[in-house]
UniProtKB/TrEMBL annotation:
Keyword DNA damage annotated: yes
Gene Ontology molecular function terms on file: hydrolase activity, acting on glycosyl bonds
Name recorded for this polypeptide: TDG/mug DNA glycosylase family protein
Broad enzyme group: hydrolase
InterPro entries linked: MUG/TDG, Uracil-DNA_glycosylase-like, Uracil-DNA_glycosylase-like_sf
Keyword annotations of the record: DNA damage, DNA repair, Glycosidase, Hydrolase
Residues of the Uracil-DNA glycosylase-like domain: 5-151
EC number: 3.2.2.-
Amino acid sequence: MPEVPDHLDDGLSILFIGFNPSLQSGETGHHYANPRNNFYRILHRSGLTPRLYDASEDQDLLKLGYGFTNIVARPTRGVDDIERQEYAEGREILRRKLRQYLPRIACFVGKGVYTEYSRRSKVDWGFQPDPVIPEIHEFVAPSSSGLVRMPMEEIVGIYRRLAEFIEKQGS
């Protein structure tokens, strides 16, 4: 199955970083394409997007200053199908992308994504105090998967912190 293309550009406000694409994302070529994934609903409800976007419009979020990538590019049924070596390679590739594009914020969609990237075992939601790449604010947000048991309002509230930060920065 083909990889889902990254949406990257210089000067992004936020680069959203997932574990890896779902099989549905691999089939469609769009990020967060599984209809049970709440990603676009969360962005809209948190105030990060002015309207509800569809996965087929993922490239349009570049106009808002938002990009997409994953720590592992290969689509799988779930994170259990990712090999340790894929994480090690993906971690280095991701660090190169971050250094090249220098988004203002790297938003890790799930604590597990951030722990794989940072190699830190203890992580809280929100901005991280000691970023791996000092020029980039690192933000850890809950996964948008429909399997997450956290209440939607709590998830939206965490993402709202991003919207507030961007608004204060005048982006």
